[in-house]
């Protein structure tokens, strides 16, 4: 289930809630009980390994020129 980050406009507390995507824009009360909150934009960290690009054009042995 996705986690969403919210901020309370009354006390300045930021907090996270796990809720279905369909409820991501539903009102959320802060832990202090205040109801004036706003959903924050979350940063997404993407980690991975970059791969070299495939060769472009020419005879690369892919069957286009009978190499196999």
Question: Would you kindly provide a written description of the structure presented here, covering whatever features stand out?
Answer:
The chain has 68 residues and is mostly beta strands. It contains no helices and 3 strands. It has a 3-stranded antiparallel β-sheet with strand order 2-1-3, with no helix packed on it. A hairpin with a 5-residue loop joins strand 1 (3-8) and strand 2. The protein is rod-shaped, with a radius of gyration of 24 Å. The two termini are 47 Å apart.
Shape label? rod-shaped
Helix-strand sequence: EEE
Multimeric state of these chains? single chain
Provide the residue-averaged pLDDT: 80
Rg, please? 24 Å
Structure characteristics:
single chain; 68 residues; mainly beta; three-stranded antiparallel beta sheet; 3 strands; 0% helix
List the helices and strands and how they pair.
Layout: E1 3-8, E2 14-18, E3 37-39
Short description:
The protein is mostly beta strands and 68 residues long. It contains no helices and three strands.
């Amino acid at each position: 289930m996705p986690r969403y980050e919210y901020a309370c406009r009354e006390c300045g507390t930021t907090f996270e809630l796990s809720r279905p995507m369909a409820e991501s824009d539903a009102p959320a009360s802060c832990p202090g009980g205040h109801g004036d909150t706003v959903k924050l934009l979350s940063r997404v960290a993407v980690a991975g390994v970059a791969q070299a690009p495939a060769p472009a054009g020419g005879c690369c042995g892919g069957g286009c020129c009978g190499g196999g």
